[in-house]
Write a structure and sequence with these properties.
Layout (H helix, E strand, L loop, with lengths): L20 H9 L4 E6 L2 E5 L2 E2 L6 H4 L7 E5 L5 E6 L8 H4 L8 E3 L2 H4 L5 H19 L10 E4 L4 E4 L5 E2 L4 E10 L2 E7 L9 E4 L6 H13 L2 E13 L4 E11 L11 E8 H8 L13 H10 L7
Parallel strand pairs: 1-5, 10-14
Antiparallel strand pairs: 1-2, 2-3, 2-6, 4-5, 7-8, 8-9, 10-11, 10-12, 11-15, 13-14
Bound molecules: zinc ion.
The site of zinc ion has 8 residues, from loops.
Length: 307
């Protein structure tokens, strides 16, 4: 079964059609075409489902930019996303297609992540990352000139110097550190109450394995031996690609937490992690749509581990 974790979006992104108005035109007019709308990255829901609406002219007129082609479904139906950042209320034209009894409302993506269909969540996450990048790329990084969307909204071009900017994805390593029968969980300073695995940005010139070893040493004072890749996840709250790994702690050095980032840490057993996943026990862990949760679940079930 597909998981509700921002993965499993459209496999056909139809990237070759984005840049061509002639190729886009029939897709925009196709009767089976649908669009999702988002405001500041928060998707419009009808009740507890992502709102897919027809591409009616009165809906398209609500946005500053044309709809962005996200791809095609397995049956070939085009799927678009519309950025309504800046609108306050849900416009009547958008609410009109809602099924009877289903309220039309923009929902924070974290909230939508617990409700909407897995494949819709992947698309809503993709749209959020894309729109945030677009709204953050108003001026050219080289000359400060005004940027304008091109390639169907998947590129920004400087109107002064021609510099092209593409949607960015920042790689982040996120690793479950294992020592014998236990794994390391730590709580972030000033962050959520839950305890999670360690994570950090990959720096220029680093491999994934090097980033894992450096981050674990910096944040917890542990030396890491083996590193293995487990899974990855797009994380639309900051436009990151989370690269989930398992890391082996060597030796028995005491925890030395980087206190600017972490306030406390614990070596937890599989049973303790399993209780936290079940919502019991003393540990609180990140929500089910996060890769941290997935790593912890796989480890607690004995499906990943060096031993
Ligand atoms: Zn420029």
């Amino acid at each position: 079964m597909a998981e509700r974790d921002f993965t499993g979006g459209l496999t056909d992104r139809a990237a070759e059609l984005r840049a061509s108005p002639e190729a886009l035109e029939p897709l925009l007019r196709a009767p089976e075409a649908r669009l999702m709308a988002a405001r500041g990255g928060d998707p419009l829901l009808f009740g507890e489902a992502l709102a897919w609406t027809p591409l009616a002219p009165e809906i398209l007129a609500l946005a500053a930019e044309p709809p962005t082609l996200m791809g095609r479904t397995e049956s070939g139906a085009p799927r678009f996303a519309l950025d309504l950042t800046g609108v306050e209320e849900v416009p009547p034209a958008l609410a009109a297609p809602a099924p009877a009894g289903a309220a039309a409302a923009f929902a924070p993506l974290r909230e939508a992540a617990t409700k909407i269909a897995p494949e819709d969540l992947a698309l809503a996450g993709c749209a959020r990352s894309l729109f945030l990048w677009r709204n953050d790329t108003r001026h050219c990084a080289r000359c400060g000139g005004a940027m304008k969307s091109s390639s169907g909204g998947w590129r920004r071009d400087c109107q002064a110097c021609g510099h092209q900017s593409f949607p960015r994805t920042d790689p982040v390593v996120i690793m479950l550190v294992e020592r014998g029968e236990r794994c390391l969980l730590a709580r972030r300073t000033g962050g959520a109450l839950w305890a999670s695995v360690l994570a950090g940005f990959v720096e220029p010139g680093e491999t994934v394995e090097e980033a894992v070893r450096r981050e674990v040493a910096e944040e917890s004072g542990q030396r890491v031996g083996r590193v293995s890749y487990v899974a990855s996840q797009p994380w639309p709250f900051g436009g990151q690609l989370m690269i989930g790994c398992l890391a082996e702690s060597l030796g028995d050095a005491p925890l030395k937490l980087e206190l600017e980032e972490l306030r406390d840490g614990v070596w937890a057993t599989r049973a303790e992690v399993a209780r936290a996943i079940a919502g019991r026990g003393y540990l609180q862990i990140p929500p089910s749509f996060s890769i941290a949760h997935k790593l912890l679940k796989l480890w607690s079930e004995g499906r990943i581990g060096f031993r």
